[in-house]
Amino acid sequence: MSGDSDCTRTSPSAGSPSDNEFLPDRPKYVCSLSPDLITKAREELQEKPEWRLRDVQALRDMVCKDYPSLGTCLDDAFLLRFLRARKFDYDRALQLLVNYHTCRRSWPEVFNNLKPSAIKPVLESGFVTVLPRLDPEGRHVVCIRPDRWTPSNYPITENIRAIYLTLEKLIQSEETQVNGIVILADYKGVSLSKASHFGPFVAKKVIGILQDGFPIRIKAVNIINEPRIFKGIFAIIKPFLKEKIANRFFLHGCDLNSLHQNIPPVILPEEYGGTSGKLDISAWNELLLASEEDFLRDFSQLVLPCDSSPHDMLVSGDADEKQCDDSLRGMKPQLYYCY
C-alpha cells in the first residue's frame, strides 16, 4: 500500500464514488476512552469528541496535499496518536508525523527488520520492561536497566530497538495516548566503558525520536542509583533536551524515599523499595513477543517512498555525524573527570 494510493483513496476530490467503490474501507474508529479520560483529553489535549473525526480528516487532507509520497498509514486511530501528542494542533501534528517517518528512514541500524523476535536477547536480559501496575495518574512505568546490557553481546542499537518497540506497543492504547508514560532508569553499575557507547551522535538521534519523532507524552524520567559518571552522560544529553523535558528529569541517587515521592511503593518492585513483589520481566516479554504479527502488519503500512525529500530529514547525514563526533571528543574528558 503506497502513500499515493492512500491519498487518492481519501482525498475528497479524488475521483467519483464509482471510481472508489471497490477500494476497501478504512477501519472505523471506536473510542475506548472512559468518560473521565474523555474529560481529561478535552481539558489537557483540546480534544473535542464531537470534532474528533473532523480533526483526523483535516490532518489526513494535509498529509495528502503536502506529503503525498510519505507512505504512511492514514487510519483514524493511527492519526489520532499524533493529534493527541500535539494537543490537536494540525501543523505540529503533521510535523510530528513527518518526523516519525524521517527518524525511521534515517537510522536503518535501528529500524530495519524491526520486530519483537529480533530483539529477544535484549528482552531476556531485562534491559527494558514495563511494570505491571499503572501509577496513580494511569500511566505505565517503563523500567530501563543499563547494567543488564553486555556490550560484547550486541551493539547499543539493539537496546534502542527494544525501547522503541516497547513504546510502539504502549502507544496502541488510547489511555496511554492521553495519560502519557513515566520512565524509571536504574543506572546502578554503569561503568565508563559502557557509558562511552552513548555518545552525542547516538544521544541526538534518541532524543530526536523521543522529543520530536514519536507520538508519546513522556511525563517524567526518574533516574535512580546514578553513579558519578552520570554527570558526564547527562552533559551529553542535556544540550539536545527541550526545557520542558529537561525539567521532567528527577535524579534520586540512592534515595528511595525521594523516588517514592514520584512513584508510589505500591506499584514498585522490591528492588526499588516497593511492595509489589520481585521485578518480573516475563509478562511484558510474553506480551511483546505475542504481538509479532501485529507489528509486521502495522509496519507494512509504513512504506518507504522512492522519492524521499532531503529537506524533510531531521538528520543531515555525514555533516551531522562529523559534528557529533567532534562533540564526543569534547565530552570524553568530562566522562573521565566524573568517573
From TrEMBL:
Protein name, entry field: Alpha-tocopherol transfer protein-like
Organism, as annotated: Nipponia nippon (Crested ibis)
Coiled-coil intervals, chain numbering: none
Region: Disordered, residue numbers: 1-27
Superkingdom, taxonomy of origin: Eukaryota
SMART domains: CRAL_TRIO_N, SEC14
Gene Ontology terms, MF aspect: phosphatidylinositol bisphosphate binding
One GO cellular component, as annotated: membrane
